[in-house]
Amino acid sequence: MSYTSYSATPDKDWGPDIRGLEHRVRGLDDRVDDVEREQQGTQTRLGDVHDLGYELRRLRESLDTVENTAEDARDELAEHISDTAHELNRLKARLQALEALVRTDPDAPVADLDTVEPAWAELAAAFRAGQLAEAGLLSDHQRQLHTNAIQYHRGAVQQQRDARDRVIAAARTLATTEPGSKGHRAAADEFAKALEADSSAAQRHGNLAMNMVKARAALENDDKRRVEAGPPIEAGRRAELQLTQAMRRRLAAALRDRATLPMWFVTPFGPVPPARGTEKWMNLAVAVLVYRVTHSVTDQVLALGPTPAPTAQHFHQHQDLAQKLRKRS
Question: Which residues lie in coiled coils (predicted)?
Answer without folding.
Answer: 18-101
